[in-house]
């Protein structure tokens, strides 16, 4: 993985009840007790890496009560004499492993950052090696999906969510109800104290930016520098959450069309990509878009499959692959695959979104009904966002009236729809939405792609307005999710801030990196993850496109 290639580490954004600011933000904690981290060797063989655990309160409202262990990894500063302190990092999700992020730090961060900081990553409570939220695989596989054609389907999803919550709570224990991001903020301050830093230097990506925002609000006097790369907006009700993500998804699709119309490397070159897309959606809606090559189980491609694929393609962006796949779906015999590509005889068919969402990379073996798998996502998200829907009438109005107006091609924002569906029936939200307030903190650095499907540029603009003079927004004029390391400009503005505490000027913009590659690539070779070597792999990736990664 090239330095700056954050995507593989990131678990890639109505009618609402009145929300009140979380009391813990309005009443900052006293000085955090200092506990030690016993650093030792990591299980992973990574040069120079150290791993350890830190005991923190399970419930920060009872700091002297039961404790849990957070897993951490550290890459010591390359130049000890020039060392500034620790850079605490989080890759997002929710559910991303900061330990893994730290172990990859030498391939992500610049030589200057690696020389001046210990890179410290942690698995947030409920994630990875830090007492993960675990749920029954058979319950996860019963997920009825995020789209509802009638009241009964919506009610069934709400009932399923309650079954899943109870299952995960029972299998996880009391921590299940304490995995919100505000609890993580207090954990971060415990990490800051344990590594001996008077002030926090933090780098958060995607969902990790919510931690950074809320840390600055809870502990403003303890901030040295906080980078928010590809930001969450924590000041949206249900209608705004859905509409802003739909707008971002449409914006990225429009950017894809503009690229395809101007690039000789687009597999749809010479065609009207928007018209082809519209035709594919029409065929999918009618049940007429079928991939017959899967033995004994032809794949009937749905509109949801296509929309998920379009959404996923904006992360890289992976538009060469996206265009090739659309061309293949339109005319399967007209796209040539590398020699040997195809379904092996033992292939049982591609995984669906539920398999990906459950964290599985392979189908469960027979007899694995009692298997527990990690699945922190809704436990975290639904305690950070109150996203109520007052029945099917509200849902239908939100989907039909609001999103179709702002997203005529892609219809909705895939993640937002899934988030709202996942939180149906969740009433007690520990860390509900409130405007970001970093008053008294050192200014924060906000950086975002102009075209980002997961954390849209509209969220970055909204957050910058909330922060006012307490933040500066830098715009990367390209497409993709996670910005640091994409160009020399995006790297330099972040490094200057982290190392020298120098903010860029208001309105700073970094030009986009080229999308086209030096040599044309075949469909399989263009995939962002190189493990695909059969047609089955390609279809599996497409069908899992609407899962967070």
From TrEMBL:
InterPro entries: AB_hydrolase_1, AB_hydrolase_fold, Pept_S33_TAP-like_C, Serine_prot/Carboxylest_S33. Keywords: Hydrolase, Signal. Coiled coil: none annotated. Residues 1-26 form the signal peptide. This is Alpha/beta hydrolase fold. Residues 334-365 are annotated as: Disordered. Residues 413-510 form the Peptidase S33 tripeptidyl aminopeptidase-like C-terminal domain. Residues 87-281 form the AB hydrolase-1 domain. It holds the Pfam family Abhydrolase_1. Gene3D superfamilies: alpha/beta hydrolase (3.40.50.1820).
